[in-house]
Amino acid sequence: MNEEKVRLAEELIRRGLDRKKLRAKLGKDWELIVGIAKARIRAKDKFSRDDLWMDLEGLRYATHESVAKYRADRLGEFGVKSIADVSCGIGIQLIFYAMKVKKAYGVDIDPLKVEFARRNAEKYGVGNIEFINADSLSPETVERIDADVIFSDPARPPEMPERRLEDLLPSPLKVYETYSKKTDAFIFDLPPQMRRELVPWKGEFEYIDLHGHLNRLTFYIDPLAKAERSAVILPAGARLESDPNLERIVEWTNKPGQYLYEIPQAIDYAGLINELFHHLPAEARMLLREKRRVLATGEEPVKSPLLKRTYSLVAVLPFHPVRINNLLRKEGFGRATLRISVPQAEYWRIKKRIETNLRGERRAFVFKIGNKAVITEAI
Ligand SMILES: C[S@@+](CC[C@H](N)C(=O)[O-])C[C@H]1O[C@@H](n2cnc3c(N)ncnc32)[C@H](O)[C@@H]1O
């Protein structure tokens, strides 16, 4: 497993060589090398470096670099001296945490992951990590670790009907039980869809949006908590915290105003819509709340890092693809992005009809609110 071989594999994959040819050219360990090369090609914007060590599984689980950096900066505010990542994977979160402390530990049960993490730490020039290839729940591992904070981003078995702590690997319940003799400061990465009632500790639920999508839920056990619930919008870096003392001011309308404000999923998941409304103009109203889309509306062109996007209203008409298409053509729209929640097959049929023969520079965003099409343009 060396750098030249992986570089060569990247080049051969880009040139379109099939598996047989790759095997012949790469020789020993060719499947592993091809996996690493594919992961590097696929990683694109996830990391600032294009030479990291990971396989495709490692890449899928790996923390996005901007999330890792944000969480490390947050840890830095607490003056923590040491941390152990007890399920470190290819080490991205671990490495960024290590930059903020004197001593870090990286544990993973999978020897290949530990090797990747070790090599990645070297790439980032981080030298204060002790790597341990072992089960983090075993007494021998616990014995070796002396850390102020325990962090774990556990693996999630894919087909679970409901996200529960006991199904994660290692289970945060077990990690807590095992390490609570040593510290009371824990940080857990949890599945964002998990119901908060299933978490038995007092602390903060922090939901992170990255590039417009919900990316992470981090739970900070009490000594490291700053609020009950929070939402962070990355890469902008905006943060909103729950405030139980705020007056409840959210009201609804079914009539879009001159502007539509798209609310980040993290804010909705964190239950912070009321907190957000205290940052919006007084006449703002909630307009739509679906699983993938939350909209408020108002009369001012609000630009805020706490909003995903602001749209200006072009027209409201009955939701009929032919009529929408007529309007878009008349107004000079060349493209339409549908922001509607309908079954997949229907979606493509509607999209095709709405986009027929569009010509022009403008790009429309089309929402469906009740039985109305709301045509907008991003500002
Ligand atoms: C979601 S990944 C961690 C990803 C990591 N945060 C990153 O940025 O690459 C979870 C890791 O937990 C490891 N794991 C699962 N059970 C474990 C255990 N009992 N002890 C140590 N590691 C474990 C898996 O091998 C896997 O690499």
Q: How is this fold's topology laid out?
A:
Layout: H1 3-14, H2 19-26, H3 30-43, H4 56-61, H5 65-76, E1 82-85, H6 92-98, E2 103-108, H7 111-123, E3 129-133, H8 139-144, E4 149-152, H9 172-179, E5 185-190, E6 203-210, E7 213-221, E8 229-234, E9 238-241, E10 259-262, H10 265-269, H11 273-277, E11 285-289, E12 294-298, E13 309-318, H12 321-330, E14 333-339, H13 344-354, E15 362-369, E16 372-378
Parallel strand pairs: 1-2, 1-4, 2-3, 4-5, 6-8, 14-15
Antiparallel strand pairs: 5-7, 6-7, 8-9, 10-12, 10-13, 11-12, 13-16, 15-16
Helix pairs in contact: 1-3, 2-3, 5-6, 12-13
The structure holds S-adenosylmethionine.
S-adenosylmethionine binds near residues 89 and 108.
Structure in words:
The protein contains 13 helices and 16 strands. The chain has a nine-stranded mixed beta sheet with strand order 3-2-1-4-5-7-6-8-9. A seven-stranded mixed beta sheet has the order 11-12-10-13-16-15-14, with helices on one face. Strand 14, helix 13 and strand 15 form a beta-alpha-beta unit. Helix 1 crosses helix 3 and helix 5 runs parallel beside helix 6. The mean pLDDT is 95.
Helix coverage percent? 25-40%
Radius of gyration equals 24 Å
As for the CATH topology of the domain at 61-200, it is: Rossmann fold
Largest sheet: 9 strands, mixed
- Give the name of the CATH architecture of the domain at 61-200: 3-Layer(aba) Sandwich
Across the major sheet, the strand order is 3-2-1-4-5-7-6-8-9
In percent, how much strand structure appears in the residues? 25-35%
Looking at CATH, the homologous superfamily of the domain at 61-200 is Vaccinia Virus protein VP39
CATH C-level class of the domain at 61-200: Alpha Beta
Which compounds are bound in this model?
Answer: S-adenosylmethionine
